[in-house]
Design a protein that fits this description.
The mean pLDDT is 95. Strand 4, helix 3 and strand 5 form a beta-alpha-beta unit. The longest helix has 22 residues. The strands form two sheets. An eight-stranded parallel β-barrel has the order 4-5-6-7-8-9-10-11, surrounded by four helices. Strands 1-2 form a two-stranded antiparallel ribbon. The chain is built from 15 helices and eleven strands. With 376 residues, the protein is of the alpha/beta class. The structure holds phosphoenolpyruvate (PEP) and magnesium ion.
Length: 376
């Protein structure tokens, strides 16, 4: 959303990137620099206090426990996940292995990356590896076919995998091989219906059989999950739930497809609202479907790591929150300072409201009164 900024900066310019407010300040003056240095040290002392929570469980005051996991894009991020007390990896975006120019990552290279994450997290922490989610805004430079009129609704994720079974099977084999190093969970992105899920599960079964035939050891009880990020999947989440071991709600895409708002288009970014009542109804519905089928429901979209959403998601019954490691402890602080009952009351109140503006204002005020969210 920064428009023509690359034409306004020169090599060597000082810049301040203020991610919290979505601002970049080019060539700041002395007083702005001072202001930001002081903000930074406030943040650092807030972080130091949060780090004391690192080993404590994400448990409400009335004893309801949830799991806080990390989202990773490259294996090197394991360290940050551990420092911030992650209880496993809820989303490893494997496609980053495929996006760099050069050769497409082969089975061995993939195996090594997955094994590294599993070994890094240790034997007791689940590591959820998502199968390759390319297309849309992420294209593999080596492959043709991504030049589409409507890529966000096009050849993406499992749709790509089912038509490039060579690439898909190689990845599944690398995952199965790596599964002996810890608790690997396989997660499929962009599932839109039951047929698609059955198709990917069939391919997984084929690859498992190949491994058995070649006497390659793997975790026979490996868990598989479906991302729920397409409205059709949300609506039939009850039908999907009995075919997988877990759900993970991908709000980044679920919001995009529910409200029909391109998640990367700054002209319409004002429409991209996690608290749109339609999105909140979907989230509640998905959690209920999962629980009726006795499977855990997680979330790995950005909303899971936004402190403003924590109490709402907790009150709706979300079991696993997966987020960028830097957000884990603030979310934990909030969870540890509230009861599940209070969170459920907040959900009851906001589900009566009809507009995202009203919900945003109400939740922001409620959260700030209660938790003094970090601000500058
Ligand atoms: C999501 O859609 O919420 C998600 C986690 O996947 P990605 O952001 O990689 O599309
Ligand atoms: Mg997604």
């Amino acid at each position: 959303g920064l428009g023509n900024i690359t034409r306004m900066v020169k090599s060597g310019d000082m810049m301040i990137v203020d991610g919290n407010h979505g601002k970049v300040i080019i060539r700041p003056d002395e007083s702005t620099i001072e202001e930001y240095v002081s903000n930074l040290s406030k943040w650092e002392s807030h972080e130091r206090k949060l780090l004391e929570l690192n080993e404590l469980p994400a448990c409400t005051k009335d004893g309801h426990q949830v799991l806080l996991r990390a989202n990773l894009e490259i294996p090197e991020e394991v360290e940050s996940a551990l420092v911030h007390g992650a209880q496993g990896v809820g989303l490893y975006r494997s496609e980053f292995l495929f996006l760099k120019p050069g050769e497409i990552a082969d089975e061995q290279e993939q195996y090594e990356a997955y094994a590294r994450v599993l070994k890094g997290m240790g034997p007791d922490q689940p590591v959820t590896i998502r199968t390759i989610d390319v297309g849309g805004d992420k294209v593999i430079p080596e492959l043709e076919g991504f030049d589409e009129e409507n890529p966000i609704l096009g050849w993406r994720a499992v749709r790509f995998c089912l038509s490039r079974k060579d690439i898909f099977k190689t990845q599944l084999k690398a995952m199965l091989r790596a599964s002996v190093h810890g608790q690997l969970r396989i997660m499929f992105p962009m599932i839109s219906g039951v047929e698609e899920l059955k198709d990917v599960l069939r391919v997984l079964d084929e690859v498992k059989q190949e491994c058995r035939d070649e006497q390659i050891p793997f975790d026979e009880s490996i868990k598989v999950g479906s991302m729920i990020e397409v409205p059709s999947a949300a609506l039939i989440s009850d039908l999907i739930a009995d075919k997988v071991d877990f759900f993970s709600i991908g709000t980044n895409d679920l919001i995009q497809y529910t409200i029909a708002v391109d998640r990367g288009n700054e002209k319409i970014a004002y429409l991209y609202q996690p608290f749109h009542p339609g999105v909140l109804r979907f989230i509640r519905m998905i959690i209920e479907s999962g629980h009726r089928a006795h499977i855990p429901v997680g979330m790995c979209g950005e909303m899971a790591g936004d402190p403003l959403s924590t109490v709402l998601l907790l009150g709706m019954g979300l079991d696993e929150f997966s987020m960028s490691p830097a957000s884990l402890l603030e979310v934990k602080r909030i969870i540890r300072s509230i009861t599940l009952h209070e969170a459920q009351e907040l959900v009851d109140d906001i589900m009566e409201m009809d507009s995202y503006r009203e919900i945003n204002t109400y939740v922001r005020k409620w959260m700030n009164e209660r938790f003094k969210l970090f601000q500058y």
